[in-house]
Amino acid sequence: MKKYLKYTSIVFMGFALITSVARAEDTIVNPENSIESARNLRVDNRELINTTRGEFRNDIKQERGTLETNVKQNREDFKNTVVQERTTLKDTTTQNKEAVKNDIKIKREELQKTIASKKEDFKNSINQKREDAKSEIEASKEKLKTGLLKIKDERKKETIKKIATNVQELNTKSVNNLTESINKIEEILGKIEIKAHEEELRGIDVNPILNAIASSKVVINTAKDAITNQSGKVYTANITTETNLKIDMGALRESLNTDIKNVREKVKAAHTSVKNASILLLSKSTKINEEIKVEGETTTNTN
Predict the structure, then answer these.
(1) Which residues contact 180 (CB under 8 A, 6 or more apart)?
(2) Closest CA to 203 of 277, 284, 263, 137
(3) Which of 93, 216, 244, 250 could cysteine-pair with 273, CB 3.0–4.6 Å?
(4) How many CB atoms lie within 10 A of CB 249?
């Protein structure tokens, strides 16, 4: 702006100089009026310069005012646009969150019903297996009575009866503990599945987690089948002679221990599989407020 004023002043001075030259030529023709004419020329030039400069300043001031007004208006328009877009985005985000929240609620309820149904089916299968084994248990008792006829010592007979009863009861207790463990593991897997679907509805790729969950379900079902079969097993003492009583009853206890150990290994495999699925979920920065443990580590030593 200062540079512009400088150039404008030069133009004015040039115009004044031309006017002075014209007046000077006039003074050559009229020398007696040269002094007065020079004075008048300076006065006229000064007034012309002041007038032009004032007009120019007014124009500049007006243009500056117009420019400031436009800048303020543009700034206000931009601010209003941003506020409107932000409000629209907020409303859209809120709607999306509500939709996702509703979908998550529906999915959670569906999975919880599925888990409850599986638990009830598992319970019924065990009860049915035990019911089917009742006749075999009675047959086992009769076989034991026949075997006891080979024993003359009454104290030994009572001891054998207690061991045989204890083995069968311990099997029931072990099955109950393992059932509780596998149910808890399956419940945890259900929570992992719910969380995985929640992340999926939020747009996160959870295919590796869902694959791990599917694998865990297979391992859990294998463990549940083993527990169900174990619940229907009947352990019968095979008494050969009074001399071999210790060996015969030891074989009975060892048979139970081996069977329970095999079932427990399947439950541990289910635990490990579910734990791996939880680690995959945690890798997606999702927290699970559950601690995965294998419960019911029952000692099967009947000594």
Answers:
(1) 295, 296
(2) 284
(3) 216
(4) 19
Q: Which residues contact 183 (CB under 8 A, 6 or more apart)?
A: 119, 122
The residue length of the chain stands at: 303
Residue 286 contacts residue 273 (beta carbons within 8 Å): no
d(CA 150, CA 158): 13
Token pair listed for 108: 């959670």
Q: Considering only CA atoms, which of 269, 238, 252 is closest in space to residue 171?
A: 252
Whether residue 119 contacts residue 183, with contact meaning beta carbons closer than 8 Å, is answered with yes
Q: Is the pTM of this model over 0.70?
A: no
pLDDT tens readout for residues 8-27: 555 445 545 445 544 544 44
Task: Identify the band that residue 286 occupies on the pLDDT scale cut at 50, 70 and 90.
Answer: very low
DSSP states of 36-100:
HHHHHHHHHHHHHHHHHHHHHHHHHHHHHHHHHHHHHHHHHHHHHHHHHHHHHHHHHHHHHHHHH
Q: How far apart are CA 46 and CA 16, in angstroms?
A: 9
**Which residue in this structure is represented by tokens 């997606």?**
284
Written as one letter, the residue type at 92 is T
Q: What is the mean pLDDT of residues 258-265?
A: 97
Angle at 274 between CA 272 and CA 277, to 5 degrees: 110
Pick from 195, 182, 145: which is nearest to 165 by CA?
A: 145
* pLDDT confidence bin for 34, thresholds 50/70/90: low
Distance (Å, rounded) from C-alpha 257 to C-alpha 6? Answer: 109
| Terminal-to-terminal C-alpha distance of the chain | 107
Tokens encoding 130: 């035990």
Reported as a single tens digit per residue, the pLDDT across 80-114 is 777 666 665 655 555 556 776 777 788 888 888 88
In which band, very low, low, confident or very high, does the pLDDT at 213 lie, cut at 50, 70 and 90?
Answer: very high
